[in-house]
Amino acid sequence: MKIVLKGVPPSCNQFNGRGNVWAYRKAKEEWTRKVYALSRNCPERPKMPLKKALVRIDYFFPDKRRRDEDNYSGKLFMDGLTQAGVIVDDNFWVISKSIHAHLDKANPRTEIMVLSLEGL
Question: With left for phi above 0 and alpha for psi between -120 and 50, is residue 25 left, alpha or beta?
């Protein structure tokens, strides 16, 4: 299953240690809602939530500024995938993640691909 979101979410650095819990909650709710909506409407969505999955996240940034991978862990997306019934949970026993960065000045976006690892 693959979904494509317009833009790239904010870095976790924008929230860590800054005491602005409301800005974090707003961003998390916004990105969770986007992922949920796109996942629910995706024709490739699994019929039952996956018990073992690889979640591949591809960020297409508008520039080549230096960005730390751990600040783009996908935290803002995982609840949306769980709520949409794509994965049963976002813990270590259920998901593995693969995170990649690309450059696309004309079309910054985030692509999330979920692949079943059940039976492997």
Answer: alpha
**Entry pTM:** 0.91
Q: Position of tokens 């993640």?
A: 97
- CATH number at 2-116: 3.30.1330.70
Amino acid identity, position 87: I
Cβ partners under 8 Å of residue 50, min gap 6: 86, 87, 88, 94, 114, 116, 117, 118
Q: What is the pLDDT of residues 14-69, one digit of tens each?
A: 776 666 778 888 988 999 999 999 999 999 999 999 999 999 999 999 999 999 98
- Domain limits, the chain: 2-116
Closest CA to 8 of 54, 55, 72: 72
